[in-house]
Amino acid sequence: MGIQQISESNHSARTEAVNARSCMAIIWVQNGSRELDRDALIDSVKAMSGVSDAKFTRVKPAILMVDYCSQETKAVRLVESISNLGAYARIVGC
Description:
The protein has about 90 residues and is an alpha+beta fold. The protein has one domain (about 20-94): Alpha-Beta Plaits, CATH 3.30.70. The protein has helices spanning about 5-20, 40-45, 75-85, and strands spanning about 20-30, 50-55, 65-70, 85-94. A hairpin with a 6-residue loop joins strand 2 (about 50-55) and strand 3.
């Protein structure tokens, strides 16, 4: 096995390990007791340990897509954090 093949094999193994831990949560978010500051909510979610990205969808603005590492956080924790910011949040899918 040549150097190129070993390098590609190692890269493939690392990619598979990262993908095994990567998850996406689909979360429905609605205004709670106060007006929802969507930018502040996204910043708060992105600041959570294990979260790599968060954004509201354009087609359905109440849907928040969150990419996260399943070894560092869980979808339930994401929903709890969003709820603590004063919004109603429910997991739609993972």
